Amino acid sequence: MTDTPTPVLAPATFQQRLLDWFDQHGRHDLPWQQDRTPYRVWVSEIMLQQTQVTTVIPYFERFMARFPNLRRLAAAEQDEVLHLWTGLGYYARGRNLHKAARVVVEEHGGAFPLHSLDEMAALPGIGRSTAGAIIAQSQGRRAVILDGNVKRSLTRLHAVAGWPRRPAVERRLWALADHYTPNHRLADYTQAMMDLGATLCRRGTPECGRCPFSDVCVAHARGEERRFPESKPKKALPTRTTRMLLLRDARGRVLLEQRPSSGLWGGLWSLPQFDDALALQAWLDIHAPDSRLDAPGASFTHVFSHFRLEITPQPARIGSLDSIGEARRWYDPDNPDAVGLAAPVKALLASLATFTLDMPPGP
């Protein structure tokens, strides 16, 4: 089997059809399409990974208002970056965005290494496709992209069998993407390829009747649009359990602790977590012996890509706590701090009613 399926159209014909469609039906007024600097394109590309445009727009605008350039982002604290990322999900993206900004400042003098696709792709959280998008969109230079939307369109167009992240399948898709990429109108072409997958060649309900390639699409000719791209072989998601301690003081504040910089919810602020009720009680016996437990809250499940987390909130009360240790803080739900919160924790904090406590306040 060769790496490249036989192209369905000559590159020039493919490009002309796509750009004609884009000129008439593409998206031309997205915030990051205005003033296409490498920085703005980069932030938008990272935010758009596995996230819809309509969700990203308000986050992008708030992010640009607070961090209008790369040096401002690099100088910020991670907490502030993750606070603006709260609710967007996939928080490693936010951490890598911050880390990459500091690398560019410290190792590249504050300017992206746009002369080198390899150096761009080596920056934290970027990779080959995002590097290509930044170069093509901001510089107008030829660079190939292969994000999820482009993979889906090319996979259907050629009926490429196999899960697109398998190395052999991905090589074939990169070869196709390179074959069709032009030497002109690169910003428009890359945006058009992303728009095609996002607006017409969608995952569940492709609009083949409006597609400029419906007459040559192999999956459409077979009536197998929904077969492609093929899904990753499924494995049953394991379930983990955790107890989240909702410890509140006499002022109604909630104790939070910062997660380690790597791993689950890295760098975000969360409720103290324990494997079971015994471990939670043991921690209270040591750190908050005067606390009182309330009845546990209703358990709920938060689903990650590789496991399910069953969370049981455990409310507790304390009059005061002299020392809360490092990487912990008191959080006032009525006057919230600007910190990054894990999504389930944000939901739990938002659901708290006005708090009253029938124990005397501490000194």
TrEMBL record:
Enzyme category, top tier: hydrolase
Gene3D superfamilies hit by this protein: Helix-hairpin-Helix base-excision DNA repair enzymes (C-terminal), Hypothetical protein, domain 2, Nucleoside Triphosphate Pyrophosphohydrolase
UniProt record, GO biological process: base-excision repair; mismatch repair
EC number: 3.2.2.31
Annotated keywords: 4Fe-4S, DNA damage, DNA repair, Glycosidase, Hydrolase, Iron, Iron-sulfur, Metal-binding
Cofactor: [4Fe-4S] cluster
Matching SUPFAM superfamilies: DNA-glycosylase, Nudix
Co-factor binding comment: Binds 1 [4Fe-4S] cluster.
Domain HhH-GPD: 47-199
Coiled coil: none
CDD domains given in the database record: ENDO3c, NUDIX_DNA_Glycosylase_C-MutY
GO molecular function, one term: metal ion binding
A Pfam family recorded for this sequence: HhH-GPD
Enzymatic reactions: Hydrolyzes free adenine bases from 7,8-dihydro-8-oxoguanine:adenine mismatched double-stranded DNA, leaving an apurinic site
Listed PANTHER family: ADENINE DNA GLYCOSYLASE (PTHR42944)
Function of the protein: Adenine glycosylase active on G-A mispairs. MutY also corrects error-prone DNA synthesis past GO lesions which are due to the oxidatively damaged form of guanine: 7,8-dihydro-8-oxoguanine (8-oxo-dGTP).
Family: Belongs to the Nth/MutY family.
Record-given protein name: Adenine DNA glycosylase
Source organism per UniProt: Halomonas icarae
Gene of this entry: mutY
